[in-house]
Amino acid sequence: MSFNTLGLSIALLKAIEKKGYTTPSPIQEKAIPPILKRKDVLASAQTGTGKTAGFTLPLLQILSQGQKLRKRPVRALVLTPTRELAAQILDNVRAYSEYIDLRSMVIFGGVNANPQIRGLRGGVDILVATPGRLLDLHNQKALSLAKIEILVLDEADRMLDMGFQRDINKILNLLPTKRQNLLFSATFSKEIKKLANGILHNPVWVEAAPENTTAEKIDQKIYKVDQKRKSELIIKLISEGNWKQVLVFTRTKHGANRLSEKMVKNGITAAAIHGNKSQGARTKALDGFKKGKIRVLVATDIAARGLDIPLLPHVVNFELPNISEDYVHRIGRTGRAGASGEAISLVSNDEVSYIKGIEKLLDEKLQSEIVEGFEPTATYAGDGKPKTSTHHRKQKPKPNNRNYKRRSRR
Ligand code: AMP
Q1: Which of 21, 27, 51 is the pocket-test mutation for ligand 1 (most atoms within 8 Å of CB)?
Q2: Whose CA is nearest to atom 8 of ligand 1?
Q3: Residue with the nearest Cα to atom 5 of ligand 1?
Q4: Ligand 1 atom 10: the closest Cα is on which residue?
Q5: Cα–ligand 1 centroid distance for 49 (angstroms)
Q6: Does ligand 1 lie within 6 Å of residue 48's CB atom?
């Protein structure tokens, strides 16, 4: 399959070539044709599948073929949960529209609104936005949504998780009823289905498995360790293993800061990335991490979600997420594109119930070990007495069941 057969214009094909893509990803192959036919689309896809190009390319083609309106009102709106994701989508839109006369802009909170207001005045065809700032600027009459032809809800599940449901409803009320709707979500909870039912008309359902569905590529391990010794253990693993690029997940922003500070004190370059960090600090941290100047990026789930981080050899769950699906997103950061990756979880005795949920979702028993010198003193539910082994000890993984299977979570 090549991009030429998808019905995209020469200008778009030229931009795709410049990006260096040779073949469309599965989600692009499946989503682009129905979007070009002006169908509503419900897509099950997460970051890393090429979903952004999957909706951006056809959206650009539709807008470039449509009638140009003199004042350039916003004709396509892409709603997305986080600032980083919004900025990334805009980068994509700009790259793909290099040979097309369409203007695009991004608006998100946490930064001065004035430059955004000024930018909107000049006329914008495609607006990428986070819900809160969009409503703010609409209330200030800095923009109109009355001419929207295409609405994209990207990472819809995360928008709901972040409490944007009401904002989304308000935004929907500001849009013309006749429009094309595209909804992208990694998971399909009851809430997402309800949202989709309320927005989409006879949607075409497309689904793309993430690149890392194959199991063998991700080696998942659990190290049982007392909560208070986790930082010591992770520092040991990173230092002794000489790990160069590690993404570490913590459950809280505070925890992310503390851990990153401890790493730095121990001579490991690290930075924390979470919702309380300024936009500038987050961009700098991510940049440093990608360029290899920062060895460890400590992130919360929300901050990490949607970030375009290249394949990583190591992902560590400093704490397990209480939402099992977040575990799948987290470990999805490793072992991409055929490279092998390791996902390690440091699990204290109060987190055992999370493992059960994760194992159920994965349909797999996770292998657990104890690192010498880090034997937990606490009792783990189901284990009986505390383990006293001084060895890397494996605790009976179920045979032949080690592969990470992605299950439909609809
Ligand atoms: P996304 O899932 O949209 O965040 O995209 C993940 C990464 O894949 C981004 O770095 C894209 O630039 C890249 N990408 C998107 N489409 C393709 C393609 N057809 N071939 C190669 N890389 C792609």
Answers
A1: 21
A2: 50
A3: 50
A4: 308
A5: 6
A6: yes
Backbone CA torsion sign across 204, 42, 48, 64: positive
Whole-angstrom distance, CA of residue 134 vs CA of residue 49? 27
Crossing angle of helices 83-96 and 10-19, rounded to 10°: 120
Q: Which residues pair with 182 in a beta bridge?
A: 41, 152
- Indicate the pLDDT class of residue 70, thresholds 50, 70 and 90: confident
What are 273-308's pLDDT values in tens digits? 987 888 788 888 988 998 889 999 999 987 776 566
Ligand 1, atom 19, residue with closest C-alpha: 24
Distances (CA, A) of 380 to 42, 228, 249, 343, 385: 42, 15, 22, 21, 8
Tell me if 308 CB under 6 Å of ligand 1: yes
pLDDT for the residue 399: 37
Predicted confidence at residue 180, as pLDDT, reads 98
**Residues in Cβ contact with 16 at an 8 Å cutoff, skipping those fewer than 6 apart:** 3, 8, 53, 57, 96
Helices (H), 98-229: 114-121, 131-139, 156-161, 165-173, 190-199
Please provide the DSSP assignment of 241-256 as one string: HT-SSEEEE-SSHHHH
Q: Is the CB of 25 under 6 A from ligand 1?
A: yes
Residue 148 to residue 180: CA distance in whole angstroms = 9
Contact in structure between 126 and 93 (CB atoms under 8 Å): yes
Side-chain-side CA neighbours of 191 within 13 Å: the count stands at 15
Give the distance from CA 409 to its chain's centroid.
Answer: 17
Q: What phi and psi, each to the nearest 5 degrees, are found at residue 251? A: -85, -30
Question: Which pairing describes strands 341-347 and 314-317: parallel, antiparallel, or unpaired?
Answer: parallel
The torsion angles phi and psi of 171, rounded to 5 degrees, stand at -65, -40
Q: Answer whether 47 contacts ligand 1 (Cβ < 6 A).
A: yes
Structure token digits, residue 264 = 């730095």
Residue nearest to atom 17 of ligand 1 (CA): 50
Angle at 393 between CA 390 and CA 396, to 5 degrees: 150
CA angle 67–71–75, rounded 5-degree value:
55
| Residue in 401, 103, 371, 363 with CA at minimum distance from that of residue 232 | 371
| Alpha carbon 21 to its chain's center | 21
